[in-house]
Amino acid sequence: MNSFPINRHRLWQFLADGVLIAAAWRLAFFLDFSHPLEPFYRYLLSWEFFVLVIVSKLAVFTLFGFYNRWWRYVSTRDMWGAARGVSAACVIADLLVYAFKPAVNTQALPRSIIVLDYLLLLAFVAGTRLLARSLIERPSGGLVARGREVLIVGAGDAGQLLVREMQRNRQLAYTPVGFVDDDPRKKDLRIHGVRVLGQTDALPRLLREHRPDELLIAMPSATGELRRKIVEQSRAEGIPVKTLPGLHELITGDVNLAGQIRPVQVEDVLGREQVEVDLEAIAKYVRGRSVLITGAGGSIGSELCRQIVRLGAAKLVLVEQGESALYEMQRELVDERDFTAVIPILADCGDAAKMRQVFERYPPEVVFHAAAYKHVPMLETNPLQAVTNNVLATRVMAQVSVEFGVERFVFISTDKAANPKNLLGQSKAVCEWIVESFAVRDEVKTRFVAVRFGNVLGSSGSVIPIFRRQIERGGPLTVTHPEMTRFFMTIPEAASLVVQAGAMGGRGQVYVLDMGKPVKILDLAHQMIELSGRTEEQIRIEFVGSRAGEKMHEELWNEGEAVGPTSHPKIMRAARPPIEQAWLEEELGELERLVGEGDMYGVTAKLRTMVASPRRVGSAVLEDTLH
Questions:
Q1: CA 275 centroid distance within chain
Q2: Active-site residue, from 57, 416, 428, 551
Q3: Mean pLDDT of the region 168-174
Q4: pLDDT confidence tier of residue 15, bands split at 50, 70 and 90
């Protein structure tokens, strides 16, 4: 169905090049001779030689792939390819002319004709392609597309690609009126016809002078601090701001930059530096492997699915007890990412019998255990579920992984496990001990690691979606305490660092992600109100007091843990004495008994006691070395 227009397009290009070859050959003789041509040269202009030259050059053009691309999408690389093709075609055609010249005449083809023919044909071939692209991209009614005038901050690769897309795609209805870029060497340069007007320091003046309809930030690697400064300057002039996503979003999204233009969100202005992770370099342990992910429909689990598919996993086993979340994740991987080697398992990962069936039928080589209950107030009122789904399920997954010879087990922990004060933190702290205890056993070949990090931006139940809903309703924004702080990281950042930490592969190591500086929840509320275009007179902030189990300031390290570096600057290692295995097994058995009896108070008391006074191997000796 689609082959006909493509073949017709190639035919027109083929015929056009034939005309250009004939014109260049004839014009070369005309430019070189102002007097009547001698018989030999008239013979070279006969139809026989025209056919020879045209056919030979078109054959070379075809071999060089001239007709595998449309002229409207010609690039700089294509231009160099055209130059190579024209050079080879002219050399071969000239050799054929020498080979088939009349035997009675020994005159050679003049070098001036060879040079002129080459230069003319090169100019014709390159010129027609560039002209075709310019005419096709030329918007109706002028050289500049009509639409909303936009000033673009960032004249790098992203900004240049964006302008090209705006000029090519009239449906975007954007008119780029200028660039702003901090590189002083770009001042007054024109990029795709759009001038670099100045640096970001001059942004307020440029906004007043040009009064664009929108300001667009096209710097995926820009820091949150720079984005916030640009947003404040633009809003002071009453001009709306949009942005391209950060690097992680671009990597995981589509290649169409223009399609990803969106309003600035609070995640863009939190001041975090971009975390660079070379996923390809550390992906060997998942490429071509069977990978199982628990909690595959959750915030971190779903992002792990996306990144691991992109890294070349052979098979992905998704374990999730939420039907809708599992269905959506499977649909995304199969329909949108064209990854069909997906096995969706609707199950509770704490069900040992079911997990053994899954591992036997779809034996995984790598396990990412991301399933957990995580909402602090909810777990405070449901301690049995906290222990069942977090602690006991982690023990089941670790045991089954060892039984079936899994190569690597990566456990997702939380900063609330450091000096824990609530049931979520206490349950996750015990989970870290489980991972450590399996890792130090001599008979266990599986490499266990735990990764600890703070809040992820935009995850279900986190503060940012809550604030957004409250703003949509007209407020108020409920803040627990004016001094409360939290660590924040984007979901793609966290997932990529989890994959990175898994590659480090220490036995029983607890890795802690560098979360940057803690952010005041109150500051977050102020920024979200400002970005919504409202004022604090319209959306008020209300202090409601801390909830049960909440800390004022989260921590990343336990007391007594020594902080050590790793091969990645954003991942640190927590060193501490190993947990005593016999004691841990006894305490876990008691926890399981209390859960079976439904003893909420007993479970809460046992968990608190365990975390308050854990037994570690050689604690007294190792305590001295840690300090």
A1: 11
A2: 416
A3: 72
A4: confident
For residues 132-138, average pLDDT: 60
Reply yes or no: is the peptide bond before residue 102 cis, omega within 30 of 0.
no
- DSSP characters for 86-108? HHHHHHHHHHHHHHTS-TT--PP
Contact 29, 44 (CB under 8 A): yes
| Chain mean pLDDT for the chain | 80
What are the beta bridge partners of residue 411? Answer: 369, 450
Q: Do residues 140 and 127 make contact, with C-beta atoms less than 8 angstroms apart?
A: no
Is residue 366 within 8 Å of residue 573, measured between CB atoms?
A: no
Element spanning 346, H or E: strand 342-346
Q: Report the C-alpha gap between 617 and 37 in whole angstroms.
A: 102
Two tokens at 359? 């591992």
Give the orientation angle of helix 76-99 with respect to helix 111-137, to 10 degrees.
Answer: 150
Domains and CATH numbers, the chain: 3-137 (no CATH), 148-269 (3.40.50.720), 288-475+487-516+556-612 (3.40.50.720)
- Residue 494 and residue 488: Cα distance in Å, rounded? 10
Query: DSSP secondary-structure letter at 336?
Result: I
Q: What is the CA radius of gyration of the chain?
A: 33
Q: What is the pLDDT of residues 48-103, one digit of tens each?
A: 666 777 788 778 877 777 766 555 555 556 667 777 878 888 888 777 776 666 54
The Cα–Cα gap between 82 and 76 comes to 10
- Confidence bin at 626 (pLDDT 50/70/90): very low
Residue 570 identity: K
Angle at 253 between CA 410 and CA 534, to 5 degrees: 105
Please confirm, yes or no, whether 416 is among the known catalytic residues: yes
Q: Identify which of 146, 152, 167, 176 has the alpha carbon closest to the alpha carbon of residue 243.
A: 152
Strands 241-243 and 262-263: antiparallel
DSSP symbols for 211-271: --SEEEE--TT--HHHHHHHHHHHHHTT--EEE---HHHHHHS-S-SGGG-EE--GGGGS-
